[in-house]
Design a protein that fits this description.
With 287 residues, the protein is α/β, with parallel strands linked by helices. Helix content is 41%, strand content 16%. It binds guanine. Guanine binds at residues 96-99, 121, 141-142, 170.
Length: 287
């Protein structure tokens, strides 16, 4: 069997055109253009690319974007001052501080300083707490992408066994909460695996849906996947062979029922979710 390819790029395009229509309507109704402020500290090349792509995507759907650049050696206080200014600025609806931050900066101090109503990454503890309690303001972008891809591809989640590899704050942990919650897009039985999980392959082989977010190139091999399972690869690893996921795509596609490619799977969707959250922030703030 060769797996169905879950085309995230095409789905992202569809979601972006839906958003573009909603944004036109928002601007007509409010006389205000939604605006995302991105903060980039230092000159990490991967972060440069991510921020550039996020800003281009904003422009393409009619969202204004600002870029605030700070030197890699900036003291925490200066970054916090910028965040405070953006919190107060009524023209700014969404604030995104690109991670990772340089070592001298305490990331959690920065993330907690962002106005939760403008926290389109959903990293602020208030937004994490709301998510855990099942009354989210924003859904974090990458987990939301995985959930939307499954839902919009018609893949049943309720009652299935979802195994997630990786317990990060950005992907694995929030996704485990979202998919196990009651209601649409949820009701799964979720197992969250990590570096201390013994006999990982024995666990992953029980997955109806396997989501991989560990940042290790081609880590998941065909023998770790149950025949017919849905495999979602969140990894983006830059290697000598180009960009590859956390899943050995060529081998696993022969076993899986459906699989996301890298690139062209979850990646393009995450930016679409950021745009969705920015519009949603603007709608709440302009009400
Ligand atoms: N760095 C890697 N992923 C992300 C993300 O989703 N948001 C931000 N702000 N930084 C990141």
């Amino acid at each position: 069997m060769t797996a169905q390819i879950l085309d995230g790029k095409q789905l992202a395009q569809q979601i972006r055109s839906e958003l573009a229509e909603e944004i036109v309507e928002f601007i007509q109704n409010n006389g205000v253009v939604p605006c995302l402020a991105a903060v980039l500290v230092g000159d990490d090349p991967a972060s440069e690319v991510y921020v550039r792509n996020k800003r281009r995507a904003c422009e393409a759907v009619g969202i204004d974007s600002q870029l605030h650049r700070l030197d890699a050696s900036v003291p925490s206080e200066e970054l916090l001052k910028l965040v405070a200014k953006l919190n107060k600025d009524q023209a700014v609806h969404g604030i995104l501080v690109q991670l990772p931050l340089p070592r001298q900066i305490d990331s959690s101090r920065v993330l907690i300083a962002i106005n939760p109503a403008k926290d389109v990454d959903a990293f602020h503890p208030e937004n994490v707490g709301r998510l855990v309690q099942g009354r989210p303001r924003f859904l974090p972008c990458t987990p939301q992408s995985v959930q939307q891809l499954l839902v919009r591809s018609g893949i049943e989640i309720a009652g299935r066994h979802v195994v997630i590899l990786g317990r990060s704050d950005i992907v694995g942990r929030p996704l485990s909460i979202m998919l196990s919650q009651r209601g649409p897009g949820g009701d799964a039985t979720v197992t969250l695996c990590h570096s201390r999980t013994p006999d990982l392959a024995a666990v992953t082989r029980t997955a109806d849906i396997l989501v991989v977010a560990i940042g290790r190139p081609k880590f998941v091999s065909a023998d770790m996947v149950k025949p017919g399972a849905v495999v979602v690869d969140v990894g983006i690893n830059r290697t000598d062979d180009g960009v590859v996921g956390d899943v050995d795509f060529d081998a696993v596609r022969e076993v899986a029922g459906a699989i996301t490619p890298v690139p062209g799977g979850i990646g393009p969707l995450t930016i679409a979710m950021l745009l969705k959250n920015t519009l949603s922030a603007a709608e709440s703030l302009e009400k």
